[in-house]
Amino acid sequence: MSASTPASDGTTRPDGTTYPVALTEQEWRERLTDQEYYVLREAGTEPPWVGEYTDAKATGVYTCRACGYELFRSDTKFDSHCGWPSFFAPLAGDRVLYLEDRSLGQIRTEVRCAACGGHLGHVFEGEGFPTPTDQRYCINSLSVRLVEDSGA
């Protein structure tokens, strides 16, 4: 069973407002690969240790793979050794939405893109990582795309 999924029409936030990027499910299917659709629109999870950004060290901004919204900076990425890319904070507080997820018989906090509602992963607290926030945003590589700094 997957985590709580975006609204069936793909356009409505949990608070009833419309996502800035509001496409039909058919439009999402045309825009995303089958794997991206599974993770971003059906709140799936990619297997650990296989994502393209798990061990990435390049600098830049991680954007939502579905809509391009800027979510995380590479300077907040850290090695958590959990099998998925980990960040200690989003780019700004309004970049992500938080939803309660009870899908695995436990309470977790799901993280979604605030612009399109795409499932990104989960955030965990109190794990003892030496980060400024003591948070670990455990994010699927299939949910994000790194836009590397140009170096200019």
Give a brief rundown of this model.
The chain has 152 residues and is mostly beta strands.
Descriptive account of the structure:
With 152 residues, this protein is mainly beta. The chain has one domain (25-147): Peptide methionine sulfoxide reductase (Metal Binding Protein, Guanine Nucleotide Exchange Factor, Chain A), CATH 2.170.150.20. It is 11% helix and 28% strand. It contains two helices and nine strands. The strands form two sheets. Strands 3-4-8-7-6-5 form a six-stranded antiparallel sheet. The longest helix has 9 residues, at 34-42. It is globular, with a radius of gyration of 15 Å. Mean pLDDT is 90; it is low at 1-8.
Broad structural category: mainly beta
DSSP strand (E) fraction?
25-35%
Count of strand segments = 9
Largest sheet: 6 strands, antiparallel
Strand order of the largest sheet: 3-4-8-7-6-5
Contiguous uncertain segments of 5+ residues: 1-8
CA distance, first residue to last residue: 46 Å
